[in-house]
Specification:
Blueprint: E1 2-5, E2 8-22, E3 36-42, E4 45-49, E5 60-69, E6 75-83, E7 89-98, E8 109-113, E9 126-137, E10 143-155, E11 166-173, E12 180-182, E13 193-201, H1 217-222, E14 224-231, E15 240-248, E16 257-263, E17 281-293, H2 300-307, E18 312-314, E19 321-323, H3 333-340, H4 344-357, H5 361-375, H6 388-400, H7 402-419, H8 436-455, H9 463-479, H10 486-505, H11 519-535, H12 549-555, H13 560-574, E20 590-599, E21 611-619, E22 622-626, E23 633-638, E24 644-647, E25 658-662, E26 667-671, H14 675-688, E27 698-699, E28 704-705, E29 708-709, E30 723-724, H15 739-752, H16 754-769, H17 786-817, H18 830-846
Antiparallel strand pairs: 1-2, 2-5, 2-17, 3-4, 3-6, 6-7, 8-17, 9-10, 9-16, 10-13, 11-12, 11-14, 14-15, 18-19, 20-21, 20-26, 21-22, 22-23, 24-25, 25-26, 27-30, 28-29
Helix pairs in contact: 3-4, 4-6, 4-15, 5-6, 5-9, 7-8, 8-11, 9-10, 10-11, 15-17, 16-17
């Protein structure tokens, strides 16, 4: 989700690998083991939960999580919970990383010690306070100073135990001061509007002659205002602390006025001292990204240069492409990015998405693949390395082939994970209760069924993948005319080795399963993946390709010629130049499912319009909800009946994370479990329904309650919407790409590796002057044409420097306009204060 800031869009995203925990304190009982799971939280809002690892004090999770962060946050937190035999969850410890500290751990495996979970330390939200110091003349003619404290409002308070009924307690702290006053309780809101004023006597009466606001210095240093937010509870345990702020009176200054927003803070005694490893530790790898994206015209020079990397010409009237003679692909901006990046994957992800967005992915991949094939000497090693070509095609298959994977493999993967049939065929690992032959038969049946599903799925292979495979096949066949099988191995090295086999091995990484499978199931999937990979490889001696003797023996169960023929027929089909219209496929594809809370739609004239938990399911045909998973649908909404999908204003029902699915007769109001899930549902529902011709152009952002729309106050429930719809995203679900954001990511990579760009430019200059062999210090760069590469590098460096200047100018402009204590930058925002300090130093240095 983008945050608009005067022409600049700010995107936040996080990619997390939750590794393992160790030294968890044992359960206080005879069974000392614990059943633990880990959650990921934005502040206190849970956005992801791992599976439960049973009976372990060192649970291994190995789960990955990625999300676009749709709102501001202060902490990225991780909680370890223990589930007991009564299915009750208790917290063991937490890791809380401040937003400003995320870059310190960027991309590194780090062990974090677990800290105690305390209600006093779990705070979020901000409060708006206005202070005014004034003189009051008493009847006796003396002057005293009084402090008027106005608690205006709060935003983003935490919801505790499903409710938030906040009030503020205001007190003046200092010697012999114990005054405390409270606001009224605001029910069912975490954004309360208080607008209440309290008065405190600040100084003892002074003589009438001293009429200034300069309170005695020793008094100012000792006095402070305290504002604490509490959640009014009906439980006997008392009210819950939500956070507080302490404002020293010296903040009033000479004017005697102070008006500012503050981030709520924990109480001073909120954290308990923790010994190292007392609660154990958690291994995490966190990659937090913040993209500052300008308008499209800022990226034109760099983007245009990148897109020329796909300039190709057809050969023999086919879609096979080669680079233009004037510039080899190795001299292109895209290839240079792949050369300078530490990991090819870094360059592949934004490049593929950019070329997909502008419709140039096929000529670009054909060009880099053709160049790589021409450099390959042995047909048996074709596309086997982690080159830019391989990584780009991998990323394209992930984006374009996600639904293809879902409809081909998901049902079978679900069955394997549910049935838990023993499939271990290694005699060393075989359990005493298992039979080797039975396990082999179980495994063989799984392999047979998955193999048949794959080799009969050719008609569903996405068109863009078929065109890429056709280009690979033709390039390989032209390069190695003698080898009759190379046209198959060039394609199988991607579709089997890099697409189907990895998806079977790690289904959670390909959205086929919500979590990493348990160890036994993971072992079964590993054996299936190995066998499928070998069956699809068309290797000359397949038994010899297995390192393990038990795998070679298992492979003898398969009729080699029969499976080879099926593979070749499948590869012929997906690498032909024919195209299929995916919309004509009638098979329902499950896109997303999960529990949410929905409001009764009021289909009957009389009835309770209450909220109930339901299991929602979305396919490419319909959106349904069920009483629970696996039961029949209580309501079916055909995709063509979804006219719009929009967020619902929180004030409608005093509930967060709500959205509405608008139909011809009524809207279905739904509450997601968290902000990330709400965004995901809105995005995918919008994409699926985008092709509807009857989509609305306007909608009501609030609900229709008590005989009128809350937003526009119109009485008729059929009244057209009062607000323009947010617009739709492209109907093609897989290829929804923001071109400017990808251009910004590529600029960031070039900026990061600027030293390598300069070194490559020096290498090109050296090779242009000297015709001798390439100098050893530049041997890490692939430079086919130094003159053309030098020209490209000159434009890249110039474009990157221009964008750097634009980013620097924007930051300085923001620095000059920014007011600390504003609603956007409350006092207590450590990351912003760090930014202000850096910009202040930068501005001073530039002067």
């Amino acid at each position: 989700m983008a945050v608009e800031e005067e022409g600049l869009r700010v995107f936040q995203s996080v990619k997390i690998k939750i590794g393992e925990a160790k030294n968890i304190p044992p359960y206080p009982g005879p069974n000392r083991m614990r059943d633990c799971y880990c959650t990921v939280n934005l502040d206190q809002e849970e956005v992801f939960r791992t599976k439960i690892i049973e009976k372990s004090l060192c649970p291994f999770y190995g789960e990955d999580f990625y999300c676009e962060i749709p709102r501001s946050f202060r902490h990225l937190s991780f909680y370890i919970f223990d589930r007991d035999v009564f299915r009750r969850d208790s917290s063991i410890g937490k890791v809380a990383v401040k937003k400003e500290d995320l870059q310190r751990y960027h991309g590194k495996d780090t062990w974090f010690p677990l800290q105690h979970v305390s209600a006093d330390s779990e705070v979020q939200g901000k409060v708006h306070i206005e202070l005014r110091l004034s003189e009051v003349i008493t009847d006796s003619g003396v002057v005293c100073h009084k402090l008027a404290t106005r608690v205006m409002e709060c935003q983003g308070l935490p919801i505790v135990n499903g409710q938030c009924d906040p009030y503020a307690a205001v007190s003046l702290l200092g010697p012999s001061r114990s005054e405390a006053k409270k606001t009224k309780v605001k029910r069912k809101t975490n954004n309360p509007q208080f607008e209440e004023t309290f008065y405190f006597e600040v100084t003892r009466p002074l003589s009438h002659t001293k009429r200034q606001f300069d309170v005695e210095e020793e008094d100012v240093d000792k006095l402070a205002l305290r504002v604490d937010l509490w959640n009014a509870s009906n439980l006997k345990f008392g009210d819950e602390f939500l956070g507080g702020v302490r404002v020293p009176l010296r903040a009033l200054g000479q004017a005697g006025v102070h008006d500012a927003w503050y981030f709520l803070q924990p109480r001073d005694n909120g954290g308990k001292p923790v010994k190292v490893d007392e609660l154990g530790s958690l291994r995490l790898n966190i990659v937090y990204t913040e993209d500052h994206v300008f308008s499209s015209d800022h990226y034109s020079p760099l983007r245009d240069l990148l897109l020329t990397s796909a300039n190709v010409k057809p050969v023999g009237g086919t879609v096979t492409c080669v680079p233009l003679p004037s510039q080899p692909v190795s001299a292109s901006a895209a290839h240079i990015l792949g050369e300078v990046c530490r990991e090819k994957q870094e360059a592949a992800i934004p490049l593929v998405r950019l070329f997909l967005h502008y419709g140039n992915i096929l000529p670009f991949l054909s060009a880099v693949a053709h160049a790589e094939v021409n450099r390959t000497q042995d047909p048996n090693t074709i596309f086997r390395g982690n080159s830019l070509t391989s990584k780009c095609i991998d990323e394209t298959m992930k984006l374009a082939g996600n639904h293809y994977l879902q409809v081909t493999l998901r049902a079978m993967i679900d069955e394997i994970c549910t049935d838990h049939k023993p499939c271990e065929i290694d005699p060393v690992k075989l359990k005493e209760s298992e039979n080797l032959e039975t396990n082999r038969e179980n495994l063989r049946q799984y392999v047979d069924r998955i193999f048949n599903m794959i080799t009969t799925s050719g008609v569903r292979c996405p068109t863009v993948m078929c065109d890429i495979f056709f280009s690979l096949r033709e390039s390989a066949a032209t390069r190695f005319e003698v080898d009759q099988d190379v046209r198959y191995t060039a394609v199988s090295s991607f579709i089997f080795l890099r697409f189907f086999a990895p998806a079977i091995l790690s289904p959670n990484l390909f959205q086929l399963r919500p979590h990493h499978p348990d160890p036994a199931t993971s072992r079964t999937l590993t054996l299936i993946s190995k066998t499928i990979q070998t069956l699809g490889s068309l290797a000359k001696s397949k038994s010899a390709s297995f390192k393990e003797t038990y795998m070679a023996a298992f492979y003898d169960y398969f009729n080699e010629q029969k499976y080879a023929d099926a593979v070749k027929n499948f590869l012929d089909l997906i690498s032909s130049s024919g195209r299929w219209d995916q919309k004509s496929i009638e098979t329902p594809i499950m896109l997303k499912e999960g529990f949410m809370i929905k409001r009764a739609q009021g289909r009957k004239r009389f009835g309770m319009k209450n909220f109930k938990k339901r299991w929602f399911r979305l396919t490419n045909h319909e959106f349904t909800y069920h009483k629970t998973k696996g039961e029949g649908a209580l309501c079916r909404i055909p995709i063509e009946n979804i006219l719009a999908v929009e967020r619902l204003e929180e004030e409608s029902f005093k509930m967060k994370n709500m959205f509405q699915v608008i139909q011809p007769e009524r809207a279905l109001y739904i509450q997601a479990n968290n902000c990330v899930e709400a965004r995901d549902w809105i995005d995918i529902l919008t994409k699926v329904s985008q092709c509807n011709r009857k989509r609305l152009s306007t909608y009501h952002p609030s609900a229709y309650l008590n005989g009128h729309w809350l937003c526009c106050k119109m009485a008729a429930d059929t009244e057209p919407g009062c607000t323009p719809c947010t617009g739709g995203l492209p109907a093609n679900i897989q290829l929804d790409v923001d071109g400017d954001r990808e251009a910004e990511r590529i600029y960031s990579l070039f900026s990061t590796y600027m030293n390598k760009l300069v070194n490559m430019q020096e290498a090109c200059g050296s090779r242009s002057v000297y015709d001798g062999p390439e100098q050893e210090e530049y041997s890490s760069f692939l430079i086919d044409d130094p003159r053309e590469t030098y020209k490209t590098l000159r434009v890249i460096i110039s474009s990157v420097q221009t964008l750097e200047q634009q980013h620097t100018k924007y930051k300085r402009d923001v620095f000059r306009k920014t007011k600390i204590g504003s609603q956007e930058h409350p006092i207590g925002d450590k990351s912003f204060q760090c930014y202000i300090h850096q910009q202040s130093e930068s501005s001073t240095y530039s002067i």
